[in-house]
Q: What sequence folds into this?
């Protein structure tokens, strides 16, 4: 009887393995020749991401996929993953959080169901939080590097180069970062035959930064009215530099306010304890 059960279990396990292999083989091969490389963490879970993205994508609405694609583009992840793969990462994050909570519950002799639900919600929204952080970080790097690139563009335009040549000089000499990548895309669009105004509008749509929108509007207005492009860029460069100084000044003024909480919660109690200890010991010895 035991041998029969063992044989049946082995057959069932074999059929399970064969079914899993067939399910995975139905997933089309992904061509990442023109995609950005994956991080080490994504490489570990990427087979599962592809599997879930293939089988779950049919149930996702077009509006949701468009919104996610937009967010991935603004965050600079559109050349790493698709909207379907991002949703698959959210599912894997949810399952991992729930599994981790159940594992902790097994070691602690059980956890309340509310904790499992909270872990599932946290795992589901953790990729959203990470995506928003990446977006803010990328937009901050773009705003920080914009005055430098505007200086290069201004000097190149005033030296007699056209916009394509000025962008090439700025990309070649400017600091590395997301703004350089965006200007490279602008150069590629202009060389492909797209108009200068439309190329810059596409960049503004990709980054969604107020300063870049202002630059694009100023360039489009200068092109329509025939104004000096060099003078327009110089005004934009001076304005962006003043705004950068004001942002730095604002952060410096906000520092004392942000320090109030750690001072009250962590530093002041310890200081009072250190000062009160010798007084308390002296009082006890005098008794």
A:
């Amino acid at each position: 009887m035991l041998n029969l059960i063992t044989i049946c279990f082995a057959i069932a396990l074999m059929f399970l393995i064969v079914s899993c292999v067939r399910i995975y083989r139905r997933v089309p091969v992904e061509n990442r020749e023109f995609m950005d490389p994956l991080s080490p963490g994504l490489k570990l879970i990427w087979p599962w991401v592809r599997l879930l993205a293939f089988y779950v994508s049919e149930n996702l609405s077009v509006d949701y996929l468009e919104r996610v694609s937009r967010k991935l583009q603004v965050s600079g992840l559109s050349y790493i993953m698709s909207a379907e793969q991002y949703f698959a990462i959210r599912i894997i994050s949810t399952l991992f959080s729930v599994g981790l909570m159940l594992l902790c519950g097994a070691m602690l002799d059980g956890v309340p169901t509310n904790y499992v639900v909270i872990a599932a919600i946290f795992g589901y929204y953790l990729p959203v939080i990470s995506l928003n952080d990446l977006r803010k970080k990328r937009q901050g790097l773009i705003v920080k590097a914009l005055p430098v690139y505007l200086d290069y563009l201004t000097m190149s335009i005033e030296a007699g180069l056209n916009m394509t040549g000025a962008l090439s000089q700025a990309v070649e000499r400017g600091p590395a970062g997301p703004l350089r990548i965006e200007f490279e895309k602008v150069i590629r669009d202009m060389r492909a035959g797209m108009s200068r105004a439309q190329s810059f509008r596409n960049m503004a749509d990709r980054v969604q930064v107020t300063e870049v929108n202002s630059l694009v509007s100023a360039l489009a207005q200068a092109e329509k009215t025939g104004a000096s492009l060099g003078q327009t860029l110089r005004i934009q460069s001076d304005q962006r530099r003043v705004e950068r100084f004001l942002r730095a000044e604002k952060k410096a003024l906000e520092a004392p306010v942000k320090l109030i909480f750690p001072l009250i919660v962590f530093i002041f109690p310890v200081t009072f304890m250190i000062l009160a200890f010798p007084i308390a010991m002296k009082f006890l010895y005098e008794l």
